[in-house]
Every structure is written in structure tokens, then in C-alpha cells.
Design a protein that fits this description.
The protein is mainly beta. The protein is built from 3 helices and 44 strands. The chain has a domain of 110 residues. Strand 13 and strand 14 form a beta hairpin. The longest helix has 8 residues. The radius of gyration is 37 Å and the shape is elongated.
């Protein structure tokens, strides 16, 4: 029902003259109760809405005339609004007797949801814009998929039925009217409620060439985020497994559950069925993922894997985590490009974190697929529990920590290969700061560690060992600040004296075999990462840091320091830089630019300027370009079970090639052995209607379970069906 008639000409002619609702009712032969008063004030018409008026329509036009039979004719920039729907046209002729509108285009109709946009040359439609015929119509869904037809019929405000249809999400230019891909169909029905597209007698074309005929097919429109159906296929060719295809099928199981079934087949008689199940709960979620495979690589034996991850919120702020990792053989995850994990941990975790306390625990089993590791002699079954509290005490901060650790090996061999251990630990500490009048910041820290060990299957140690390790430290900092123009500089010398016992009862070291000396632990009371080993003796940690922060957006930092010990107690390996009475010099620097460039370097340099360890990283990120380049050098170290030095370059970069093409390079090259460990190249093409991803990778290294392999992957996805990854629209060039 047309109720508000607003014309600019009337607004200019009838300034400050009210139009009564009864006058509009007489013009349109409609009940007076459905209309409201429309007032014209200073050239603006302001409708005064009533309760019933929200169900009525509003018409805006340059000219409105009344013809024979009370026919209303609106011309010039005509707009009609009804229940959130909007229609624009050049001319509308409304027949109140038949309650129909004859519309002359160009016509544009936008539904209340904003998801559908209809364009047409002419139309005959009812007054509610729910039913009618549109000629020369084009339906645009979510500004992604367009369907052009000779004629479109609107039914019940829900269905749009198009005859002789061309559908595509590609940009169609006048200079090149053939899209990259299109679907031609005898009929297409769009269900606005279920948001489905039903194609009848469809033909898929690429570059105008017919490739496939589909008698009937159903697809989601671009607004659908989640529904059952096939996902984009993935093609992969491997020198080990042959050429294959994977075709995932997604199944919705309500609002909180779904299942993805992925069958795969390869040319070397490889068959895989992959499954992924996800479920969300009110207080958490649980994901299952796995596959079963039969291939020639293992003489048609059944292979597979099963992963599960869950997280759940419990009362009183606790979080429960669940993880499962199991695989049939050591090479399966690498062969099928599933995961790079080498130690698969399965178990449960429980934690609660607050400002002044921590509860953390976990128990589980670790299965190693790393070459050279025997699960029978590894501490596979292990559990940990840690309780921490902090308090304000004597003007400082005190803390209490309790922890329990236990692990068990399946082997009964006496010694390292069969040892089982339970450790009970306690730590109490107090730290306080003072600021002296000279600006020197003083920190005093004291702590006591007490551990009790219960050891089995290792005759080299007593079955029970108790130890107490007190530690005290004084730290002096003297920060100096200077403002130079738009930059601020901070120079801070730091000196720390640490005392610990020279000797402690010898216990098996299971969790502190790898030590890294860096700027993060230069002023730590112990540089061991675990609890089994503790740094001993009197030592001085000395360092100097300098930073410059410029308002233009760049920052520069430098840290240098070393450790001087009263005695060399032979605790560390040669590659750590901590051997001898004086450690190597630790030199770390970083540069951050507003352009997105970041440079960092960390080196351990001895008094003869020889490098024990060096790590350099360069990263750059801007727009679509990213670069990460790293170099690592580490000396050989028998304590860390490294017979040869490591000298590696790592490169990971992605960059645009053209407006639609992107490339990527990823490699790890061993300079010591003069060979690459891995290398990968990627090329991606993305525009408004298609996404094409090509990848080529090579694994050069081999082991007893993993062979060198070359893989080629191809993934193609058409835009416009479902709310997947959005392409980059390109404009037509003329």
C-alpha cells in the first residue's frame, strides 16, 4: 500500500502547508486509518508516523500524477520503500484496482537483508514487491555472484526464478565479455530463506569452453557461512605417493557440531579416508582429526593417525585441556604433510592463573617419532604439578612454589636408559627494591630451593637424595636518560653479584641438558631451564644496555655483557659460551624501522673474537610483502649431543608478482654440509572470481623412516559460492 507521497515540486510549492491524511486517502482510495499526516515545512516534508504506518510503503518521486481509474503515475528518480525493501526506477504506474505496479527501468531492487540486489529493464510486480515478472534481469548476491537472465520471476518474496541464466563472480568487461569461468543454466532458483541456488541443466565453462555438464546441482549463495556440501578439491603429486586428489565433504550437525569427510586417492594405489569432527560446548570445545590409509609405501598395510584437542572452562577459574596424538608409523605424518611434530604428547592439563597465584598440572605420555630415539628408553610417561603464591612482605614481594615431577621409562636397563625418578620441590624467595638518592636502583633477592628425589633403576645414585640450594643476589642499576631532538636515549649499566653453594648433591639431570645464554637470562640467578641442575658458586653478571627511540618511528638497541665466576666448576658445555671463569661476551642488537624492517643479532664472542654461537634475523613486512631471513651458527658440543657444528640459513618470504599473482619461497640450507634440508616454492593467483594455489616442495634429508620427497600441490576455489576466502576485485581496463 502506497501511503507517503513526497515530491520535491510539491515541497517547493506548498511551503508550510500541511497535507492531511484524508487527502491522500481520497487520492489512493484507501482507508484513512492507514495514513499519517505529512507536513511541509520550509521545503521539507516530514511524515508523522503512526503505529500502523510501519507496515505501509513510502514513495518518493519528482512528479506524481493521478490518471483514469485512480491510477497513480510517478516519474523521475522514483524510489519506493516497503518493510526494509527498496526499489528505484525511472517510472512507476500503480493500479489500485489490481494492486500492481508497472515499472520502467533502469530498475534496482534491494531486499531488506541487503544480501540480494536485483537489476532489470522493466517489471510488473505487486504492490508488496513480493511477486512479479522482471525482464532483462540481473541478480547480484552479496556483491560477489551475479546471475543474468532474460526473465526473472519473483514468488512469495522468497524465490527468484531465472530463465536462460549465465552465472559468474568474474568481472565482465566490454573489451573482453567472456569471463574466466561461468555457469550457463536453463533455469536457476534462488531461495532467499535457505540461501540456496538450484541449477537446472547447467554447463560449466572456462574461457568460454564447455568443460562439464550438470543436470541438476545445488550450491550455497555467497552469504552462507556454514552448510553441508563439497569443499574445494586439493590435487597433490608426490614422488613417493604418486598423483592424487582429495575431495572434502562438509556436514553440519546443528549449530555447534560439524563433520568433514575427506576421501583421497592416488595413482600408486593409495586410498585415504580422512575425518574431522568439531563440537563446541557452552564451556569449551573438542576437535577430533584422523585418517586411515592403505598405500604401496608400506606394502598395503593400514596406516593412519588420530589427533584430538579439547579445552574446557571449569568452576572457580580452572581450565582443563585434553590432547591426543597417535600415529601408525614414524613417517606417516611427514609423508602426507600433516604435521612436523616429532614428539607426540597425549594427556590432560589443568591450570588456573590469577594475579597472585598459579595452579598448573599435567600428566601424559610422549611418543617419539624422531630418528634415533627409542621410546622404551625415553621418559615417556610423565606428570607435573606446580603451585605458586606471591605475597607483599617487608616492603617487597615474597613467593612460595611447590612442585612435583615424576617420569617413568618402559625399559628396566640400569642407568640412563631405564631410570625412573620422582622429584618433590619447594622454593621460597623474597625480593625488594630501593631507590637511592643518586638515582641508583638496588634490588636484593634471596631464595631457598629444597628438592627430594626418589630414584629407581640407576645404581649410580642413591635411591633417595635430598638437597638444599640457597641463593642470594644484589643487583645495581643506574639508568641514565637523555633527550636529543626528537629521540630519547637510555643508557643503563647493570651489575649483579650472585652467591650459591659451590657443591650440591649430584642428582640425575633430565630437564636441563640444553642451556642457552642470551640477553633474557644474563641477569638470572640460574641459567638452567629446569630444576634438576642449578648454577653454583659466586659469580658476577655484568652488562650494559643502550636504547634509542626516535619519534620518526625507529628504535635501536644494544646489549653487551658477560659472566665472571670466582671458580670454574665445569657446569656448562663449550657451545653455551659459559665455560671458564669468564664467559664469552654476549652481544645483542636490534633495529626496528617504521617501514616494517626489523634487524636483530645475538652473538657469543670469546676474548679471541671467535664465535661460539651466532643468530641473526632480518624481517620485513609491508602490504603484501613479507620477508624472514635467519642465520644460525652453533659449535659442536658433546654435552648437548651435537657431534657437528650447525650452520644454517632459513628463508621464508612472500611477495606480489603482479596485481593478482603472488609468490613465496621457503628454504632451509645447511652451509656446513653444503646442501638444502628443505625447499618450497609457491605461486598464488587471486582475483574476484577464482583462487588458484600452486606449491612445489622438496625434502632433501632422509632418515631410517623418512625418504627424500618432491611434492606438487594444486588447489582451486571459485568465489561466489559460500562465504569462503574473498578474492581481490579487479577493474576493467578500457
Amino acid at each position: 500500500m502506497l501511503t507517503h507521497i513526497i515530491t520535491p515540486a510539491d515541497a517547493r510549492a506548498r511551503k508550510a502547508t500541511p497535507l492531511k491524511a484524508s487527502m491522500l486517502a481520497m487520492l489512493l482510495c484507501a482507508p484513512v486509518a492507514t495514513f499519517a499526516q505529512v507536513a511541509v515545512q520550509d521545503g521539507n516534508l516530514t511524515p508523522q508516523l503512526t503505529a500502523t504506518q510501519s507496515q505501509a510503503a513510502t514513495l518518493v518521486a519528482d512528479r506524481v500524477t493521478i490518471g483514469g481509474g485512480n491510477t497513480l503515475i510517478a516519474e523521475g528518480s522514483v524510489e519506493v520503500y516497503y518493510q526494509g525493501n527498496r526499489l528505484t526506477a525511472a517510472r512507476i504506474q500503480y493500479d489500485p484496482t489490481n494492486e500492481t505496479m508497472l515499472i520502467t527501468g533502469p530498475i534496482r531492487m534491494i531486499d531488506a537483508t541487503g544480501r540480494a540486489d536485483i537489476l532489470a529493464d522493466s517489471a510488473s510486480i505487486d504492490q508488496d514487491m513480493q511477486n512479479g515478472i522482471l525482464n532483462g534481469a540481473r541478480l547480484v548476491l552479496a556483491r560477489e555472484l551475479q546471475l543474468a537472465a532474460n526473465q526473472m520471476e519473483r514468488r512469495d518474496g522468497r524465490y527468484s526464478v531465472l530463465d536462460t541464466v549465465v552465472a559468474s563472480s568474474c568481472q565482465i568487461c566490454a573489451t573482453d565479455p567472456t569471463p574466466l569461468w561461468e555457469i550457463r543454466a536453463r533455469r536457476v532458483t534462488h531461495d532467499q530463506v535457505t540461501r540456496q541456488l538450484y541449477f537446472e541443466k547447467a554447463q560449466f565453462r572456462a574461457f568460454g569452453v564447455p568443460l562439464a555438464y550438470l543436470p541438476a546441482v545445488k550450491m550455497p549463495d555467497p552469504t552462507v557461512e556454514r552448510m553441508s556440501g563439497f569443499l574445494a578439491p586439493v590435487f597433490r603429486s608426490s614422488s613417493l605417493l604418486g598423483t592424487g586428489i582429495s575431495l572434502p565433504y562438509f556436514i553440519t550437525m546443528g549449530d555447534s557440531r560439524d563433520l568433514t569427510v575427506t576421501p583421497s586417492i592416488t595413482t600408486q594405489d593409495g586410498y585415504t579416508l580422512g575425518l574431522r569432527y568439531r563440537e563446541a560446548y557452552r564451556t569449551g570445545r573438542l576437535d577430533w582429526e584422523g585418517a586411515v590409509t592403505r598405500d604401496e609405501e608400506y606394502d598395503d598395510d593400514t596406516r593412519g593417525y588420530l589427533f584430538a584437542d579439547g579445552s574446557f572452562e571449569l568452576p572457580r577459574g580452572y581450565t582443563l585441556g585434553v590432547q591426543l596424538r597417535t600415529v601408525s608409523d614414524d613417517a606417516y605424518l611427514v609423508d602426507y604433510d600433516i604435521s612436523d611434530e616429532e614428539r607426540l604428547w597425549s594427556g590432560i592439563t589443568l591450570e588456573r592463573v590469577k594475579a597472585d597465584r598459579l595452579v598448573w598440572g599435567r600428566v601424559g605420555y610422549t611418543h617419539s617419532i624422531r630418528d634415533g630415539e627409542d621410546n622404551g628408553t625415553q621418559p615417556a610417561l610423565a606428570g607435573d604439578l606446580q603451585l605458586s603464591r606471591s605475597y607483599g612482605l617487608a616492603g617487597g614481594i615474597a613467593h612460595l612454589d611447590w612442585d612435583v615431577h615424576a617420569h617413568r621409562r618402559a625399559s628396566d636397563i640400569d642407568g640412563d636408559l631405564g631410570r625412573d625418578v620422582v622429584r618433590y620441590g619447594f622454593e621460597a624467595g623474597l625480593s625488594r627494591n630501593w631507590l637511592l638518592p643518586s638515582g641508583v636502583l638496588v634490588n636484593a633477592t634471596g631464595l631457598v630451593n629444597a628438592d627430594f628425589y626418589d630414584i629407581h633403576s640407576d645404581s649410580r645414585y642413591d635411591s633417595t637424595i635430598a638437597r638444599v640450594a640457597p641463593t642470594a643476589a644484589i643487583t645495581l642499576r643506574y639508568p641514565l636518560v637523555r633527550q636529543t631532538g626528537s629521540a630519547a636515549e637510555v643508557l643503563e649499566p647493570i651489575a649483579q653479584i650472585v652467591w650459591s653453594r659451590r657443591t650440591l648433591p649430584e642428582v640425575p639431570n633430565e630437564d636441563s641438558t640444553l642451556v642457552e645464554f642470551d640477553e633474557g637470562n644474563l641477569f638470572s640467578l640460574t641459567r638452567y631451564p629446569g630444576e634438576d641442575a642449578r648454577e653454583r658458586g659466586i659469580r658476577a653478571n655484568l652488562g650494559l644496555s643502550w636504547t634509542r627511540q626516535d619519534a620518526s618511528g625507529y628504535s635501536l638497541g644494544l646489549t653487551a655483557g658477560r659472566v665472571i665466576k670466582a671458580d670454574d666448576l665445569g657446569q656448562f658445555g663449550t657451545s653455551t659460551g659459559l665455560t671458564g671463569r669468564s664467559s664469552d661476551w654476549l652481544v645483542a642488537s636490534h633495529l626496528t624501522m617504521s617501514s616494517g624492517l626489523i634487524l636483530s643479532n645475538r652473538a657469543l664472542i670469546d676474548d679471541n673474537f671467535s664465535l661460539a654461537r651466532d643468530e641473526m634475523r632480518i624481517s620485513y613486512t609491508k602490504d603484501d610483502t613479507s620477508l624472514s631471513l635467519g642465520y644460525l651458527w652453533m659449535e659442536a658440543d658433546q654435552i648437548e649431543d651435537r657431534d657437528e657444528p650447525i650452520s644454517e640459513i632459513l628463508l621464508d618470504t612472500s611477495f606480489p608478482l603482479t596485481a593478482n599473482w603472488n609468490g613465496s619461497v621457503d628454504t632451509r640450507y645447511d652451509l656446513y654440509t653444503e646442501g638444502a634440508a628443505t625447499a618450497a616454492l609457491g605461486v598464488e593467483y587471486v582475483n574476484e572470481c577464482i583462487s588458484l594455489d600452486l606449491s612445489l616442495s622438496r625434502r632433501f634429508t632422509s632418515s631410517s623412516s623418512v625418504d627424500p620427497e618432491t611434492s606438487l600441490g594444486i588447489s582451486i576455489e571459485l568465489a561466489g559460492f559460500g562465504a569462503g576466502a574473498q578474492g581481490t576485485a579487479q577493474t576493467c581496463t578500457r
